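Quick board copy: two proteins, each given as sequence then tokens.
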Amino acid sequence: MSETVLWEVEAGVATITLNRPERRNALNFEAYDALERALRRAVTDDDVRCVIVTGADPAFCSGDDVREIMAAPRPAAERPASPVVRHRPTPAAMAALECDKPMIAAVNGPAMGWGMELALYADIRIASERASFAELFIKRGLVCDVGGFYRLPQIVGPAKAAELLFTGDPIDAAEAARIGLVREVAPHGELLARARELAGRIAVNPPLALRYMKEGLRRGTYGDPRELGGWAIETIRRLMQTEDHKEGVASFLEKRAPVFHGR
């Protein structure tokens, strides 16, 4: 396991910790790959009956590492040559959605952009009082990944999901609890203990029944995410070629308000 993502198993509960605190746990390519591998490992490890995903303080996950992923030059060969190209969903997203064991997000700080997406992939979210959430993609001239389209409307309702996606505005932990995004808000120092207590109550139940229970919930509530996830990635890659996206990245790096022109 990479040092960017830590793995620990105790009493049937796997804890996956994003571990780039100096970058507020922003995900670069290495971290995305390590996160995918950790989530796949949770599925195949018979000692794991429940999964907790969290971040090393001070953040849960600030999303993509803008400097390494968005601002880095892309070779021409990596750019989509045609609007009919079909892309696979984000591998780490699918690893989270296909994890057949109950998953709890212990959101210990800001969950921004793909960090909020990661929290959405969990079955249950518990937030520290220091947590905040934002679907920041619109601020970068992009659309969200599959989580915002696939999970968010079911969790908070279509109108609230539209507001969060269209504005990109952040909400604090109290508002997240009010709209049903998180199960509870815990004092920061008690967050992991609360998550582990809940995970322990889940993990003592019969493993096969737990997995089928989760599959039944997925089928009844969400459906199949693969087509939607592929469309989201295709659209993101197309939008990454626009002037508005480049302005969104530049304004973030230059710490100024962006000016968008629809190009």
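And the next:
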Amino acid sequence: MRYRYIVFDVETPNRYNNRMSAIGISVVENDRIQESFFSYVNPETHFDYFNTQLTGIDEETVRTAPTFPELWETIEPVMSSGILVAHNAVFDMGVLKKCLCDYGIEWRSSAKYCCTVQMGRRLYPGRKHSLNVDCDYYGIALDHHRADSDSRACAQILLRYLKDGANEMDFIRTYRL
């Protein structure tokens, strides 16, 4: 049985990891990427130098971007339409949870998700499974720490694992929101 996967990646403005400065979403269904979405997000907070250097996103980049509550109206139907997937999902799920909580947005009490890092570790032990290493291994193009590129690369890694015979039921977890 194949599911609809909502593969997402977030970038954050600072070390607190409680706000987004960008989000990329790639929808996987019927063994292919069906649609993609990207937006900068105005986090309404400060940017750390480290995060700006890593992501290329600063206050000026997001000055006219929607805030998380404004963006949530657009992305919630997509985020609600399948199993969430991320590379190192605990990080991305945590940022999502904190954004929802900080803005007082009620969504659901939990969400089903998969982590492609955890999948890789169980399917192919002995290899390193950072996003750039997995992309190099599979020949997947990556503009690392760009949310749209990272979500698309994660989606391609997920598709590779499924094509190689991974049983998604073995990897679906529940995250309490």
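Board note added afterward: Residues 142 and 153 are 6 Å apart (CA to CA).
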